[in-house]
């Protein structure tokens, strides 16, 4: 085969253009390809392309799977199967008709949000004390992890977290029978969800049982 005569560096260069399925198949070809296609830099690239915060938020790893640590030799390769099917959505975050930033929301636990997804625009019009999160959240609420859609959204994202943190408040957005709660780092996130990071979390749940069809 032509690839048998290529230097490892060139093969790695070609492999960086492959997706996860192609890399998995390449690993089955021979022991050499197994080692090259299993390179952590390749799987890190795939993970970060899908979920950028994995590169900067170590606490996020514990939220996804406590059995995987950044200290593990094959951490990125082990993480990718955990996140490839996690649903995510993009939306615009507003605060009483004032643009905040564009968000990417990843569901990490709870009842699946389903095909309905998230609204294109989340308007936070109400706020309440974060001490009430424990009683406000339903046990099967869909838990979301938010990150800015791009670096251009980072400033507005960080300012919104700071805005909620300084006031010890959670934000509430409503859409028909659903309610979306966004909250900054707090005891609820640390104790109930096991997340000790600095990002924005949230949950979505029905405000009352949906009508029967």
From TrEMBL:
Q: Where is the F-box domain?
A: 1-46
What PROSITE patterns is this protein classified in?
A: FBOX
Domain of life according to the entry? Eukaryota
Q: Pfam families from the xrefs?
A: F-box-like, SPOC
SMART domains found in the cross-reference section = FBOX (SM00256)
- Write down what this protein is called: F-box domain-containing protein
Name the source organism.
Gracilariopsis chorda
């Amino acid at each position: 085969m032509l690839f048998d005569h290529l230097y490892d560096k060139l093969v790695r260069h070609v492999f960086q253009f492959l997706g996860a399925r192609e890399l998995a198949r390449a690993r089955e070809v021979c022991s050499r390809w197994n080692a090259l296609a299993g390179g952590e830099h390749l799987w890190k690239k795939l993970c970060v392309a899908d979920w950028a915060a994995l590169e900067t938020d170590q606490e996020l790893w514990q939220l996804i799977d406590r059995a995987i640590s950044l200290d593990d030799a094959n951490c990125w390769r082990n993480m990718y199967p955990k996140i490839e099917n996690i649903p995510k959505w993009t939306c615009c975050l507003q605060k009483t008709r004032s643009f905040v930033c564009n968000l990417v929301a990843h569901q990490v636990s709870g009842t699946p949000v389903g095909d309905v997804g998230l609204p294109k625009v989340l308007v936070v019009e109400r706020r309440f004390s974060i001490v009430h999160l424990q009683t406000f959240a339903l046990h099967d609420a869909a838990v979301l992890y938010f990150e800015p859609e791009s670096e251009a959204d980072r400033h507005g994202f960080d300012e919104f977290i700071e805005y909620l943190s300084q006031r010890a408040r959670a934000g509430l957005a409503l859409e028909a029978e659903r309610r979306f709660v966004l909250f900054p780092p707090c005891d609820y996130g640390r104790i109930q969800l096991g997340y000790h990071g600095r990002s924005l979390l949230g949950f979505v749940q029905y405000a009352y049982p949906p009508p029967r069809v």
